[in-house]
């Protein structure tokens, strides 16, 4: 049984091929708001809250990205959304790749923002599992409350200080059970570079120039793996480029959407 229903949010009530947005960890659909504000009118934009985050229930499935991708697929179908360009940031990118693997018929284009196709190192995997245990044992979010420092880059820390309390607030609004579930799911994920090898549609890879979590080398790895990919390096942004430089990310996603429409 998949963790349903997932909450879907129509952020632009346009028509035609939808742009589907999947948020990063440990946030929810709100992180896309600055990007959506920069998108052209008339574009249909739908965002999904992953299991346990935002307005979505966690359910009772084992923590895997496969379960998350299946839940996104079910939510889009339940909402009557058509096939489109699927975009994910960080964990959302992992889910987008998994969706393309398991339900390729619904993914006509991929947007991979500050994410990677490779699996975790053993050290990273151990860190995720330790965080999962910590939030479960304490039933608090203390173990992830330092994340804004890691997610935001040096330019943002100097010039966009208002972003810190915003991200902090969004993290605090999530549940420990969802955070633990997501960490275990990400820790278990395999390398999905082969999904990009097989994917025939257009791919937009977006990475903040200051991103140290999923750096430019990981972005270039995905571009090299895909047959029709473009690389967009966002200056003065780190792992949350959608908040730090939303206009640049919106431009990349608009171009992706146009390429998808041209090929349909």
Describe this structure in words.
- With 264 residues, this protein is α/β, with parallel strands linked by helices.
- It is built from 12 helices and 7 strands.
- Strand 2, helix 1 and strand 3 form a beta-alpha-beta unit.
- The mean pLDDT is 95.
Helix-strand blueprint:
Elements: E1 8-12, E2 15-22, H1 33-36, E3 43-48, H2 65-78, E4 84-89, H3 91-102, E5 107-113, H4 122-138, H5 147-151, H6 154-159, H7 163-172, H8 176-187, H9 193-198, E6 203-208, H10 216-225, E7 229-234, H11 241-244, H12 246-263
Parallel strand pairs: 2-3, 2-4, 4-5, 5-6, 6-7
Antiparallel strand pairs: 1-3
Helix pairs in contact: 2-3, 4-8
From the alpha carbons, calculate the radius of gyration and give it in angstroms: 17 Å
Instruction: Report the count of strand segments.
Output: 7
Question: End-to-end distance, in Å?
Answer: 33 Å
Q: Ranges with pLDDT <50 over ≥5 residues? A: none
CATH level 1 name:
Alpha Beta
Total number of distinct structural domains: 1
- The succession of helices and strands, N to C, reads EEHEHEHEHHHHHHEHEHH
What's the shape? globular
Biggest β-sheet: strands ordered side by side in the sheet: 1-3-2-4-5-6-7
What percent of residues are in strands? Answer: 15-25%
Q: Major sheet, described briefly?
A: 7 strands, mixed
Helix segment tally: 12
- Might you state the CATH topology name? Rossmann fold
Mean pLDDT value: 95
The CATH architecture name reads 3-Layer(aba) Sandwich
CATH homology-level superfamily:
Alpha/Beta hydrolase fold, catalytic domain
Helix proportion: 40-55%
**Secondary-structure content class:** alpha/beta
